[in-house]
Every structure is written in C-alpha cells, then in structure tokens.
Design goal:
InterPro entries: NAD(P)-bd_dom_sf, SDR_fam
Keywords: NADP, Oxidoreductase
CATH superfamily: NAD(P)-binding Rossmann-like Domain
Number of helices: 13
Strand content: 5-15%
CATH architecture: 3-Layer(aba) Sandwich
Shape: globular
Protein name: NAD(P)-binding protein
Strand order of the largest sheet: 1-9-8-7-6-5-2-3-4
Order of helices and strands: EHEHEHEHEHHEHHEHHHHEEH
Number of strands: 9
Family: Belongs to the short-chain dehydrogenases/reductases (SDR) family.
Organism: Periconia digitata
CATH topology: Rossmann fold
Largest sheet: 9 strands, mixed
Amino acid sequence: MSDSSNTSVGPDKFHYSRPLDWSPTNDLPNLKGKVGIVTGGNSLDSIGGNIVHQLALLGAKVYVGGRSSERVEHGIHSILTTSPSLAPANLVPFVADLSNWTQVKQRAEQFLQEETRLDFLINNGGVWTDDLDINEFGVNADLAVNHIAHFVLTQTLPPLLSKTALSSSTPKNAVRIVNVSSNAHSIIPQPTSFATLADWNNDFGGKQNQWSPAFRYGFSKAANILFTKELQRRLDAEDVPIVVTAPHPGSILTTGFAKVVGVDTEEWKNSLPASQGALTPLWCAVSEQVDDTCKGRYIMPFGVVAENTEFCDDETEAKNLWRVTEEVLGSAKLL
C-alpha cells in the first residue's frame, strides 16, 4: 500500500497515482472458502463483471448482482465461457433492481439465510442520468441507486459481515466493504450539502448547464465517500474489525466517462479498459496490503490512499448524509 498525500484532484485530473505494477493473478491471495457480493457485476464489458471474474478465478464464491435474472445469467454464462475451468456453483445470481430498495433488502435478507459468512461486499452498481429523475420517495435517481440502494444492502448484512470479521479464524482487516466511487466527486460545484432532501436534489443548472448530469453523478460519488467515512467511524466505535474503502477505478472506457470528458479528448484516448478499472476495487476488497491506514479512505489507482476534496472530508456532511438517508428509508418503511 502506498500513501499519496499530495494527490491532486479536479475536473482535469483524471490520472493515476502510480503505475500498474501488479496483477490479480500474481499478487492477490487465494480466496478459496471466501464469499462475496458484487453489485453491477453482470457484464464482462463493465468494471463489475471484471471484478466478479477475477474474484472467481482466485477461488471465491461470488454472488453476481444485476437487475434481472436474464442479465445476471447472461453475465455468468459469459464468465464461464471465458474461463471454463471455473466451477459454476461459485457464481451465484444476486438479482435485485437497485432502484427498488424493497427488492434490495429482501434479496439481502435471503442471502443471510443462504450463507454462513460474508468476506467482502463490493457496492459497485450505479447509474448516470441525463435528467433529474425523482422517485416516489423524493430522491433523484443518481442518489437513489448509487447511494441509498447500497446503504440498504450494507445495513441489512451486518449479521454476517460482523460474524465473519469477529471469527477467530479471520485475520485482522480481512473483511471488507468497498463502495466504488469516482474522481467525478471532485468536479461538483460548491457550496453543496447533504443536510436536506432539497439539497440532495440539486439539479446543478439542469438543462441550461451541459455539465449538470456529470455534477449530479459526481455528487452521488461524493455520497459514496462520505458514507464510507461515517460507516467506518461507526464500525470502529463498535470494535468491529471491518475495513471500508471508497476506490476510484480510474479513467475507464465507459459511456459515463465519455459523457464527462468527450470522446475526442486526450483523457478519453488515455483511458483504460474495464478489466483494468476492476483492479483498484479488487485491491480494496481482498489485497493483504490493505491495513488500518486504508480505513474509511478514498483510494486512487492502483491501491493508493489519497486525499479527498474538503467537502468529502467534512464529518458534518457525513452525518448529514446518514441522517437524511435514514429519514428517507423511514418514510419508505425500510428501517
């Protein structure tokens, strides 16, 4: 693990903190007997699908998250076709539409009945919206999916996460929660806040500002970092030895990144395939290099503890985010 206290961030800084000098196959541990969940993991064209693939190759049993059975089964079939030596039983569908919080909670509760351990939870699934789309509970789609769905999932699974982490057979810091974020958190205009639901639904200029979709997405990625900080604080207060991180996968060849930087830019030309976008979340989830210095931190590629923006370091905003999230879920009768 490296430290990068001078890592700069900003709208023109979609960069890497250190070169890629390791590979999952050679530098990550054998995961036989480990169990994990990856949301948004149903396509090998995506970061999540590549995370699932590598975890399975390392021997883990992976629950593959996706919004429909068809998508998940297709993703699992693609992985097994690519790597026919993998055991099909180690790739298990985890079907839940992240826009439907009740469905997310029910699938998580089902998981608690299916397994006796949970070693890593990778909250990777997400959306990018072109317009401000408010759901029935008054929350825009970016935050409803990218933040609240994963809050629901994470807060439903503590019985197994804690049990696994506190087991005498589990090494210190081996259980992980990974909230996949993005350097896009650094481009949101200030001042912003998570203090009220009205603040959450900031449209950042709407259709009058071509950057508003990127700002809304970045705002949801800031929520991932603040959630990580507050969740880690709460786990530490309860002496539960789980490491929570918020990695930036890097500048990856995805539709969302194309919308941020444009396809005719140097940033796009220098971006990486999804297979390499999986590496930093993988490092956060299972690398033996992860230690106490990573707790509650934003992680840059490839495995570098990095500085946040001032907004994402604000403990008051982390508490605001948690409070309003609970208020929303209370109104949805999911607490």
